[in-house]
Amino acid sequence: MLRFLAFCVGRFCLAGACVWMTAGPLPAQTPPGAGAAPRPAPYADWTKGAEKQSGLFTVWRKEGKIYLELAPDQLDKDYLQTAVPANGLGGFGILSGQMFAQDARLLRFERDDARVAVVWQQTSFAAPPGTPLAEAVRLSTANSVVGVAPVVSEDAASKHVVIDMSLLLGDVMNFNRTIAHLSNPHDPLSQYHLDPTRSYFGTAKAFPSNVVIEADQTWASVKPPDWVNTVVDPRSIQMRVTYNLIALPENDGYMPRIEDDRVGYWEIQRLRFDQLNANDDIVHYVLRRNIQPSDPSQRISPARNPVVYTLSNSIPVEYRDAVRRAILAWNKAFERIGISDAVEVQDQPADPAWDPDDFRYNVVRWVTNVNRNGFAEAQVVWDPRTGEILRSGIIIDSDFVHLGNLLLRAQNPSSEIGAEPGAGIIHDDGPEMAAEFAFGAVAQALLTGEDPVTTAKREAVDFLYSAILHEIGHDWGLAHNFIAHDAYTEKELRDKSFTAKYGLSSSVMDYIPFNLAPRHAANGDLFQKVLGPYDYHAIAWGYTRVPGAVTPDEEVPALDRIASQWSNPLYRFASDEDVQWQNGHAIDPRVAQFILTGDGLGWCVGQMQIMSGLLGTLDSRFPAVQHVWSEERGAFAAILRPYARCALGATHYIGGEYLSRARRGDPGGTLPLTPVSRQDEIRAFGVLDRLVFSESAWNFSPTMLRRLVYTEHAAFTDFTGEPPLRHDISLAGVASSIQDAALDYLFSPGLLARIADLPSKSRPHQTMTLADLFTWTQRSIFGDVGSGPVKSGEVRRNLQRRYADLLIKLAVAPPNGTPYDAQALARFELTDLERRTEGALSKTQDLQLRAHLEAMRADVRRALQAQTVAPPRSGAPEAPGDG
User: Fold this and answer.
1) Tens-digit pLDDT profile for residues 114-156
2) Rounded CA separation 179/183 (Å)
3) Which of 158, 405, 472, 621 could form a disulfide with 399 if both were Cys (CB 3.0 to 4.6 A apart)?
C-alpha cells in the first residue's frame, strides 16, 4: 500500500530558498582557484574499448565507471530523476523498491567549461513564465547542486560531451541518517559510514525515454580503537540504489487541477506569487493521469492516451486473471464521464529485450521480500511541477496471500499481538491488510470446519482482486478514504445482492476488513469486489473535462458542483491525517481503518463477540495433525489483532467530534464540528468496560494457552540470534498491551484538553466532561475494591497497578498540556483509591491480594504526601506538544 505522503511542505524554508538538505553529503568538489580541469580526451580515442548503450542518453561503461554522453540540446534542459533502494535492510528503515524514499526531482545538466554541474531545480515556487514575478522567483530562490562531473571526452564535430557519473556513488539518498538512527551508539561495530573504496556501479540500462543507473554502495562500520579488547573485525553492508533519469513530456496538453479537500487525491504544493486574490500563496495541484477523450464532441469516446498495464511474468498464473479484471474494472468509472477504454492490460511481451525498467511501461510485478509481512504497493511517478502522473504500477509481495507465512509472522515473538497494538494495528497498512486476509481464512475455517489452507486458497483470489482495485485507485491519484464504510448498514452487508452491486464500503480506497458474519447467518461478499459510489464520484471530479476552461482556476466552479456533495454519506471523504490518533489530532470516530457500517461501534461489538467465540474453538482446528504447534499460536494472533483494533476504536468515541468537510452553502452541510453525544460516549466506554478492562474479557482456555508455543526454528526469524525468553504467549502481557493502548489515548494531554473544552461548545449534559472520564474509569478498574469481593486475577491486579501509576503521574508530574482540572481529578481519585484499599484490606486474608493492595496503597500515599518544588506557572497549561 502507498503510505500517506507530505509531498512538499518540508521544502518551504530558509526565507524562501528551496533547500534540499536531506540529500545528504555530496562528493567533494574542486574549490575555486584550485587549478584547471584536465582537458577532455578526443572522442574517438576515449570511446575505444568502452561499452555503449543507446537511449535517452548514450551510456558508456569503461574501466568500472559509468559515463553519460550529452548532446548540446540535452544541456540546460529539465529531466525527471528518481532514486529507489534496490535492496533493503530486511524490512528495517530502508525497504527494497520503496518508490517514495525520495521524491522525484527535476534535474538539469549545466556546463561549466570542462565540467558539468548536475543540478536539482527548485519546484516549490512558481510564477507565470516570462513575467517580472518569474524573474523575482529566480532571484529569490536557490537550486541544489548534486555534484560537478568532469567532462572526460568531447566530440569536436557533434559537440557531444561525455561526463563521469561517479557522483551517484555518494550518499545522495542520505542513507547515513537512516542507518545512524538504527545503530547502537555504544557499539562501534554498528556505526556505519560510506566507504568509497568499496562502492561501484552495478547495472546500467538505456531506453528511449529513460536511463537507469545502479550504484552499489558499501557502508562499513567503524573500526574499534586499538584499546578496545575485541577480536571482531569491522563489518559492512551493501546498499544498491537505482537512479532513473527520465524524459519529461512536452506540450502534451495537460492542465493541472486544483485540489479540493472534499474529494480525496494526493497532491503537490507550490508557492505561487500571482495568487493575489487567494487566501494564501500556496496552490495545491492533485496528482492524476492525462486522460482525455479522443473526440470531446461525442457522448462517449475512446481515451486519447489510455494507460496500458503490463503484467509481469513474475505474477503466478493462478492470480493473473484477478489482477487483469481488477485493473480493467476502473474503465467503468471513466465510461460514466464519457471516456471508454481508459485503461488496458497486456501480458509481458515475449521479446527478450523487454525490461520492466523501461519507463514506457506501467508494470505489475510480483516480488519476494524478507520481514515485510506481505504488502501491495502502488508505484507512482509524477511531474513535480504539475502533478501529472507519468508512470504507475504495482508491486505485490508474495506473502500477501500466503497464509502459512502470515501465520508464521504472527507467531514470531517480535511481531505477536502483545508487542505494540496501538502502532501496528492503526497505522500499518500493507501488513495489516495481509493480516486481515489471515484472520478471514482462520475465521472461516473455524466457522465451517474447513481446512484453513483450503479456505485461504479459495479466498485468496477475491482478496487479491480487492487489493488491486485499491492500488489502481492510487495509480489514478486517489488518496485513502477512511470514512467510506460509514455509508452502509450491517443489514445491507448481510445481503449478497447488495454487496455485489455496491461493495462493502462506498470506496475501494478504504481499508476494508473481512466481512465476517455469525455462524449460520446470511452474509454478503467477504471482500470488496466492485467500485463503490464514491470511486465513481472521485473519478468524475478528477477527470471530467470542463469545456471552455483554459486555466486551472477556470475549472473550479464546475468542479465545486461535484465536490459539494460531501454531506451525502455515499460521497464523503476523509483520509490518513484523520486517523492519527496518538496525538489527539484525529477527532472523528467515523474515520477509521478496517471498520464496517455507519455504526462502527455496534459492528465492532458484534465482531468482538464472534472473535471471543472463535478463540474458544481454536483447539478444534489448530494445529492440523502433524503440523507444528506454532500454527495455533499464529491463528490466535490472527484473531486477536482485529479484536484489539476494535477495542482501540471504541476509545475514539470518547471526547470525539464529527468533522464535516462541507463548505458553507453545500447541500446538507453542517457545522464543521459536532460533538459525539454523551449517550454514545457512555456506550463506547461500556465496550471498554466489558471487553477490555474486565477480568472476564481475558478468560481463555488454560489448555489453549499451553498450546501457544513457538516453533524452535521459527524463533530466530526476528534476526536477534537468540530465542525468546518465554516459549508461550503471556496472557497478562497481551491484555496489558491492549489495555495500556486504550488508557494512553484516553488520558493523553490532547484528548484531555479537548474533553475539558467540550462543555463550552455544547449545552449542559449533551457531551461528557473530564469528571465523567475519571469517574467511569475509576469505577471500571477499581469498582470492586472496597465494595465487595475483589477480583484478584493477575490481569486485573496488573491493570489496577498501572492505572494507579497513571493517576500518580497526572497528579504529581503531569505531561505538558495536561489541563489543571485533569490534575485535580487525578488527585481526587487517588484519595478515593486510598480509602478503597483500606476497606478492602479489612475484608481479605488472601496473601497475594493483601500484598497487591498494600503495595498499591503505599504508592498512593507517597503520591498524596509528595512535596515538589517547581517554578511558578502562570495562565493556562501549555498546549499539547509544547515544551
Assistant:
1) 999 999 888 777 777 778 887 887 777 778 888 899 999 999 9
2) 6
3) 405
- 545 near 449, Cβ under 8 Å? no
Q: What's phi and psi for 285, nearest 5 deg? A: -105, 135
Backbone angles phi, psi at 108, to 5 degrees: -140, 145
Q: Is the pTM of this model over 0.90?
A: no
CA 642 – CA 648 distance, rounded (Å): 10
pLDDT reported for residue 522 = 87
H-helix or E-strand spanning residue 833:
helix 820-841
The conformation of residue 295, written as its DSSP 8-state character, comes to -
- Which residues 6+ apart lie within 8 Å of 823 measured at CB? 810, 811, 814
Tally of CA atoms within 13 A in the half-sphere of 174 that contains its CB: 12
Which long-range contacts does 12-21 make (Cβ < 8 Å, 24+ apart)? 12/124, 12/271, 16/125, 16/140, 16/141, 17/140, 17/141, 17/142, 18/122, 18/123, 18/124, 18/125, 18/141, 18/142, 18/143, 18/144, 19/142, 19/144, 20/105, 20/120, 20/144
Q: Is 817 left (phi over 0), alpha (psi -120 to 50) or beta?
A: left
Domains and CATH numbers, the chain: 38-248 (no CATH), 301-740 (3.40.390.10), 747-865 (no CATH)
Hey, what's the torsion of the CAs at 286, 290, 291, 294, to 10 degrees?
140
Between CA 377 and CA 571 the distance in angstroms is 25
Residue 458 phi, psi dihedral angles, 5° rounding: -70, -40
Contact 535, 473 (CB under 8 A): yes
Given phi > 0 = left and psi -120 to 50 = alpha, else beta, which region is 449? Answer: left
| Contact call for residues 505 and 488 (beta carbons, < 8 A) | yes
Q: Which of 419-433, 580-594, 596-610, 708-722 shows the lowest mean pLDDT across its residues?
A: 419-433
Report pLDDT for 241.
86
Cα 342 to Cα 361: distance, rounded to the nearest angstrom: 15
Q: Which residues contact 757 (CB under 8 A, 6 or more apart)?
A: none
Helix-, strand-, coil-residue percentages of the chain, each rounded to 5: 40, 15, 45
Evaluate the CA torsion angle 145, 146, 150, 155 in order and state its sign.
negative
Q: How confident is the model at residue 867 (pLDDT cuts 50, 70, 90)?
A: low
Query: What CA–CA distance (Å, rounded) separates 103 from 5?
Result: 10
CA torsion, points 727, 730, 731, 735, in degrees to nearest 10?
-140
Per-residue pLDDT averaged across 534-560, rounded?
96
Nearest one of 224, 196, 447, 247 to 360, comparing CA atoms: 247
CA–CA separation, 501 and 477 (whole Å)? 24
Residue 435's closest CA among 624, 642, 617, 737? 642
Longest dimension (CA), the chain: 103
Query: Is 404 or 170 the better-scoring residue by pLDDT?
Result: 170
Q: Determine the average pLDDT of the residues in 840-848.
A: 88
Would you state the cell numbers that stand for residue 657, as one nine-digit string? 467530534
Taking a C-beta distance cutoff of 8 angstroms, is the pair 707, 619 a contact? yes
Please state, in angstroms and as integers, the Cα–Cα distance from residue 505 to each residue in 328, 502, 564, 570, 669, following that order: 20, 7, 20, 9, 22
For 537-558, the DSSP string reads HHHHHHH---TT--SHHHHHHH
* Burial per residue of 186-222, b for 16 or more beta-carbon CB atoms within 10 angstroms, e otherwise: eebbebbebeeeebbbbebbbbebbbbbbbbbbbbbe
pLDDT band at 416 (very low <50, low <70, confident <90, very high): very low
Instruction: Give the lowest-confidence range in 389-403, 417-431, 549-563.
Output: 417-431
**What single-letter amino acid sits at 231?**
V
